[in-house]
């Protein structure tokens, strides 16, 4: 019921590039937070970069890993529901878990990932910063990062959007998420109404 169509994973990554990389090394969980970009090609394919020291902690490329992309999420108060049915609070969310073995990129590809990441994040700005404007500096610090590509062999993607509720309650949740003074979450309301950004 809550499965997210794999074709929407790229949209999720594009809108929420801050992700979590999880792996297990010698039986110990290793977790890092990092930006990722959707790659053209197979569903859920991403590129990203992290500090070289973090990549070494993960033994990146030597083990399977999971990239967790957390999309919009919101607390749903029972007061949002319009029906008289008994209800309890819940949480709506959109998330994708991308399972696979990362491939470590070389220096030139890593620099390209850094450049593309900056371009993606700066694109909405009126005068976007360009990494090329500090090319010498960027090339000096790039070796302290490790780029990677992950083409998932499994995607677990979920969109819990009150699908199990009657339409009147769903409409109430959408209205609550747009208007509530404490728990407003307009992007979640957009996902629920099908008008994703």
Word description of this protein:
The model has no long low-confidence stretch (mean pLDDT 95). The chain has helices at residues 9-15, 52-58, 107-122, 135-141, 167-179, 186-193, and strands at residues 18-25, 28-38, 46-51, 65-76, 90-100, 103-104, 145-150, 154-160. With 197 residues, it is an alpha+beta fold. The radius of gyration is 19 Å and the shape is globular. The chain starts with 8 loop residues before the first helix and ends with a helix. Strands 6-7-3-2-1-4-5-8 form an eight-stranded antiparallel beta sheet, sandwiched between helices. The longest helix has 16 residues, at 107-122. It has one domain (6-76, 89-163): Pnp Oxidase, Chain A (Roll), CATH 2.30.110.10. Strand 2 (28-38) and strand 3 form a beta hairpin.
Task: Summarize the helices and strands and which ones pair or pack.
Layout: H1 9-15, E1 18-25, E2 28-38, E3 46-51, H2 52-58, E4 65-76, E5 90-100, E6 103-104, H3 107-122, H4 135-141, E7 145-150, E8 154-160, H5 167-179, H6 186-193
Antiparallel strand pairs: 1-2, 1-4, 2-3, 3-7, 4-5, 5-8, 6-7
Helix pairs in contact: 5-6
Structure described in brief:
The protein has 197 residues and is of the alpha+beta class. The protein contains six helices and eight strands, in the order αβββαβββααββαα.
